[in-house]
Amino acid sequence: MKSVFNPSSDQWEVLTARPTASLEDVMPIVDEVFTDIQSHGDDALRKYSTKFDGYAPKTLEVPLADLQNAANELSGDLKSAIDKAYDNIYAFHLAQQTERVHVSVQDGVKCWQEKRPIEKVGLYIPGGTAPLFSSILMLSIPATIAGCREIVLCTPPNESGLLAPAIRYAAFKCGVTRLFQVGGIQAVGGMTFGTESIPKVYKILGPGNQYVTAAKQKATQYGVSIDMPAGPSELLVAADDSARATYVAADLLSQAEHGVDSQVVLVSTSKTFIEEVQKEIDGQLPALPRSEIAAKALQNSTAIFFEDQKNAIDFINQYGPEHYIICMAEEDDFVNSVSNAGSVFIGNYTPESAGDYASGTNHTLPTNGYAKQYSGVNLDSFLKAITFQKISPTGLKDLGPTIETLADAEGLFAHKNAVSLRLKDLS
Fold first, then answer.
1. Which of 258, 322, 352, 363 is catalytic?
2. What is the overall mean pLDDT for the chain?
């Protein structure tokens, strides 16, 4: 990690930049894949699975029996861990259910809002260098609670052309209705258009690399909604001398090992602490099985010293981290000042890994600064809010003239007439 000391505000834009390619760089290949899938369906899916992932299964859909039998292939400890994580994630997302909002805005005029499930959702689970079965829990559990009728999941197989038992077990436990061993741009394209095997969906959710993120954004041009632009993982840690350098270094490495395009940032009001963390990173990195990946990610990463605490807080909000750990003596100042973050972890004993796996919060979060305008995945991500209203004759007699006046002022006579005809009959 490079170190920067007391950067001025005109340097912040450079320091908040992520190590990802621009849409202009990756969109041509997305356009090519999408056009091919529109014309050639499953054949195109196999073609690009071979090209990008090195393997194209003859049967794209995983048989239900393979999902049902996966529990027998897991160790008892892993199965219990998945079950525990499932329980916590389920409990937190179930608590997000809201009651119908019903208001009599005036005599005879009733308005209400009800939430209904999105009928068909597509879930994308990255594969690549690690089988992220935890993302299945994060996406499928709220989809099931919401009541989505069709839950389609796409994820790439491993180098041997297989899906890990944990992937299949999590999918079965969470109620996934159909599972396809397809990844990358081609998976998003398949769920966007529908093919002979993969059904078309109404909304696509899930994290991925910059190509998957671009493909999701492309999907919106074809009438498919997405959760958010969720690209390569990132973490910002705000810490001072009250924190443990060992813990902070471990947290930074935990995100750096996701991929070479990940980014981690340390913001501190202590130069000494930054030095301690750098030493800890140097000591912990060689022991990691994914040390080569983490080392490359660290080249995109920065430790920043701010003498002034307010400047540190302002910088963090401008960065808008996906994951944000606060280990500061004055933690309330930082917590209360959060404006832009995907998910916040507070204190020395709240590692980001807890949210990644089992504390209950969702780990599908906005990256690349999109925390300024997007929320992470939650129960509402799988629901639509539909408004209803009912007006009685008494209510229309009172409200009608107001509607007529407003419609007339906008020059929309048919709008006015729809009210006037009714008022005439009522009189």
1. 322
2. 96
24 is catalytic: no
Q: Are residues 13 and 35 in the same domain?
A: no
Token pair for 289: 């099985």
pLDDT at position 54: 87
183 and 116 assigned to the same domain: yes
CA dist 128 and 163 (Å) reads: 12
List of residues 6+ apart from 163 with CB closer than 8 A: 62, 66, 131, 155, 157, 179, 181
CA distance 399 to 159: 66
Domain that holds residue 351: 2-20+232-360
In a domain, 370, yes or no: no
Evaluate if residue 131 carries a pLDDT over 90. no
Q: Which of 323, 330, 363, 415 is catalytic?
A: 323
Q: What DSSP string runs through 239-278?
A: E-TTS-HHHHHHHHHHHHTT-TT-EEEEEES-HHHHHHHH
Q: 80-94, 147-161, 290-304: which has the minimum mean pLDDT?
A: 147-161
Report which of residues 208 and 192 the model is more confident about: 192
| 368 backbone φψ class: left, alpha, beta (φ>0; ψ -120 to 50) | left
Active-site residue flag, 352: no
Q: What is the CA angle 48-49-51, rounded to 5?
A: 60
> pLDDT, tens digit, for every residue of 395-416?
999 999 999 999 999 999 999 9
User: According to the model, what pLDDT value does residue 12 have?
Assistant: 97
